[in-house]
Amino acid sequence: MLYRQPLNQRQKILKKLGLLGRFGVIFSIVLGSILLAWIVMAQQPVTLNLLMTAPDAQPWKQGIIKDFEAQNPGIRINIIEGPNATNLLEDLYTSAFILGESPYDLINMDVIWTPKFAAAGWLLDLTDKISKEELAAFSPKDVEGGRYEDRLYRIPVRSDAGMLYYRKDLLEEAGFQPPETFEDLMKISKALQQQKKANWGYVWQGRQYEGLVAMFVEVLEGFNGFWVNSDTLEVGLDRPETLNAIAFLKDTVKEGVSPPGVTTYQEEETRRFFQSGQAAFLRSWPYAYPLANEPTSPIKGKVAIKPMVHAPGQSAGACLGGWGLGIAKSSKHPEEAWKAIKYFTSREAQRRFILNAGYVPSRKELFTDPEIVAKYGHYPQLLEVVDSAVLRPPIAQYAQASDILQRYLSAALTNRMTPEQAMKSAADETRRLLKAGQAKI
After folding, report:
1. Of the candidates 8, 71, 106, 321, which lies 20 to 30 Å from 399 by C-alpha distance?
2. Fold adopted by 46-159+321-382
3. In 12-95, which ranges are E strands?
4. What percent of the residues of the chain are helix, what percent strand, and what percent coil, each to the nearest 5?
């Protein structure tokens, strides 16, 4: 009896130790599995989602994204191809943000989306992520297009600006210098028409859509007018300068310089009209230049570009377009997204992308880079255009303000309303819109 008790106790202790040992092994296995899974997960590349138009997606995939992923194996860029119409692309972004958890990390933005997206709180503030010295490398207007209320939300990747195309061969044959003023444009157009060198003088985008607004802000700037002052929210649509701008556009049709159907034209209708040799002048974007100089183009080698014409003593206006990248506030990978933006907007990456895809750079020095100019000889002239760029009002209610202007401007140009009536109504509606927006703040 004296020795059995200690023996039983020893057996119990050994049993307990055996159980603890087994638990320890199991615990070690579980812990090891967790650690292994964590290591595997940590080694998995981060995927950043980016929505863009389908035509843009292929050049990005084959060029700049392929290069980025080769240098950054821990990050993958997943391009989601969207519709070609930018307004539909904006709707997709907006719907995703409104529904809550947006699937997008990088936000590819048309310049006019920045105020709306920033005001809604959908974008990360990038102001403190980039220095003034780094920003100085970009076109100032492109940088300004990424700001809202003095904070930076978008880094420019690709610039764009409206300009005047002209048939340099026709002007040289007739002894004319390129026009500088609205009066010059009308005078040269009529002379070329009278000499049977061109059926029409000038084509522009007159249909009721965003392109009408883009075209109009250039003419408005040329008459020293303004649409909305974003600092004071003053509206200038019912001022004499605006009526002068409308009068010029109406006169191009009234005096036979522009075809009667110009008020139904968008970019492609005007480009095809000009490229077929039917007009001496065209207002359009940079994309039209390589198309006009294709081997099969009737006007190959006969086209030149310059900033838009203006009233005497005033300055030219080029409506700023272009695209830039921001970061969704809901992104789970903001640091990786910023790394991607830094790469995509870097000098060397953008330089290679331009040489391969032919886009307009956002970095100033690339407009005069020898290798780029050797391939795209018109880029130095493009820089002159971009330097005269005009921003559409960077206000949160831009889409609604644009809709107002489109409707009433179209009514004035197609004689459904007098310009005075149309612009008074447009100005009044715009003021109410801006006042309602202030009341919500």
Report:
1. 106
2. D-Maltodextrin-Binding Protein; domain 2 (3.40.190)
3. 46-53, 75-82
4. 55, 15, 30
